[in-house]
Amino acid sequence: MFRSFQQRSWLSVTLWVVIIALIVAAPSVLPVFRLNLLGRFLSLAIVALGIDLIWGFTGLLSLGQGIFFALGGYAAAMYLQLRSSIDMPNSIPEFFSLYGVDRLPLFWEPFRSPLFTLIAIWLIPALLAAVLGNLVFRNRIKGVYFSILTQAALLVFFNFFNGQQKLINGTNGLKTDVTVLFGQLELGSPEMQRGFFWVTAVVVIIVWMFLRWVVRGRFGNVLIAIRDDEPRLRFAGYNPTLFKTIVFAIAGGLAGIGGALYTVQSGIVSPQFMTVPFSIEMVIWVAVGGRGTLVGAILGSVVIMYAKSLVSEALPETWLFIQGGLFILVVTALPEGVIGWFRGEGPRNVMSRLGFSRPIGTYPQLEVDGNEEVQP
Question: What global pTM score does this model have?
Answer without folding.
Answer: 0.89
